[in-house]
Design brief:
This protein has about 120 residues and is mainly β. The chain has a single domain, classed as 10 Kd Chaperonin, Protein Cpn10, Chain O, CATH 2.30.33. It is globular. The protein has no helices and 9 strands. The protein is about 0% helix and about 35% strand. It has a 7-stranded antiparallel beta sheet with strand order 6-7-1-4-5-8-9, with no helix packed on it. It has a two-stranded antiparallel sheet with strand order 2-3.
Amino acid sequence: MSDNTLGKHDKLPIKMLHDRVLVRSDAPEGERRSGGGILIPATAAVGRRLAWAEVVAVGQNVRTVEAGDRVLYDPEDRAEVEVRGVAYVLMRERDLHAVAADRFEGAEDSTGLYL
């Protein structure tokens, strides 16, 4: 979406510039569950872990992602911003590690990630 909208939500009151990407994290920070259902407390020490997020707005120079894409990023390399009471993460396009392959050709034969 080139009009920098949130998709199914209201239009954002900001316009992204240059190569900036605004994302909304998929999972809240804190406790989480493992694939087997084990509760992992927020205080548990884990190695460097990447996180999934949904792209909600992009700048005019962003070429590889668009609003609505799911992307993989490092939550330690982020700048947070709050817009209308919702927390978002602002980053450069080059700080994204991967994008989910739903909209790419041949996605049905892939592992689910476009690298």
